[in-house]
Amino acid sequence: MFNDQTIVITGAGRGIGASAALQFAEHGANVVVNDLDTSMAEETAQAIQSQGGQAVAIAGDVTAAGFPEQLMQTAVDRFGRLNVLVNNAGYTWDAMSHKLTDEQWQAVLDVHLTAPFRMIRAAAPHLRAAAAAEIESGAPPTNRCIVNVSSTSGLHGNIGQANYAAGKMGIVGLTKTIAKEWGRLGIRCNVVAFGFVDTRLTRPQEVQEESIEIEGSEIMLGIPQKVRTMLDKDIHLRIPLGRPATDDEAASGIVLIASPLASYITGHVLEVTGGMGI
Ligand SMILES: NC(=O)c1ccc[n+]([C@@H]2O[C@H](COP(=O)([O-])OP(=O)(O)OC[C@H]3O[C@@H](n4cnc5c(N)ncnc54)[C@H](O)[C@@H]3O)[C@@H](O)[C@H]2O)c1
Asked: What is the pLDDT, as a whole number, of residue 265?
């Protein structure tokens, strides 16, 4: 389904992004695996290669100035073209709104909104020029699209996540704008919004002891155990399917909307939530 196509996916060292990278490769794509965490990015790329697929790991911080241009150029140099950009990288840094610092607000908006915008801008020359040349030549259209990752926290708001909700709703507006601006070139832009996916962002903080280092600050990841216990207790009331998604199920939503089967779908918000929020 993605033969001869190049996919760039950010935050693909673990979790949903790593699973999506593997699934794209299984469907024939050349995959550019980005992550902040060098060893994890390399692990995903090696897993793809060991299954006979094509992948390259490009470690780096999506919020770093100039990095998006470098990432896109390396993708094109390595595989000759760019077809799909998936803006997936991110983390949460929660606090109640009245206690949220400027640093927390800015860091979370940087990774979930500003970085995806810069990635899209950096992808523009590669995606748009190829699409325009194809239209000019009368050749059949090639699959070209952007998938931005959002959350039910963005669509509905969520206690303790004003920064994350703002970023994840902002990306919906960005997506719909790109869909309108680039649609005439046949380039699609969609959102996949997740609800509750079993990754280190949702596991009990005290059990997993996972953190991410952002500009010298160590940020604990996951949900406090007492909040997680409360969420698990009424899970059937909140989620019709009654359980969190696996990372593979979440990633399949990304692959689905990026695929040529979705060739007439653009500007859409695909909720991969087990029915949460309907
Ligand atoms: N897990 C959920 O329930 C859930 C729900 C809604 C949305 N999401 C979104 O899905 C996406 C993937 O999350 P996940 O649950 O797989 O988390 P995860 O922590 O398992 O994976 C996220 C990856 O992004 C990388 N990353 C973080 N900041 C980065 C940066 N600045 N530059 C490059 N890489 C960076 C991390 O190193 C990590 O490998 C995120 O955008 C997240 O907000 C997750």
From this structure: 98
Say what the pLDDT of residue 9 is: 98
Cα 155–chain centre separation? 16
Other residues' Cβ atoms within 10 Å of the Cβ of residue 203: 17
- Where the chain has pLDDT below 70, the residues are none
- Give Cβ neighbours of residue 232 (< 8 Å, ≥ 6 apart): none
In a domain, 73, yes or no: yes
pLDDT at 215: 87
pTM above 0.90, yes or no: yes
Report how far residue 31's alpha carbon sits from residue 53's, in angstroms, rounded to the nearest whole number: 8
Q: Which atom of ligand 1 is nearest to the CA of 196?
A: 3
For ligand 1, atom 18, the nearest C-alpha belongs to 15
10: containing domain: 6-198+246-272
List the CATH number of the domain containing 252. Answer: 3.40.50.720
- Name the closest-CA residue to atom 23, ligand 1: 11
- Per the rule left: phi > 0, alpha: psi between -120 and 50, beta: everything else, 208 is alpha
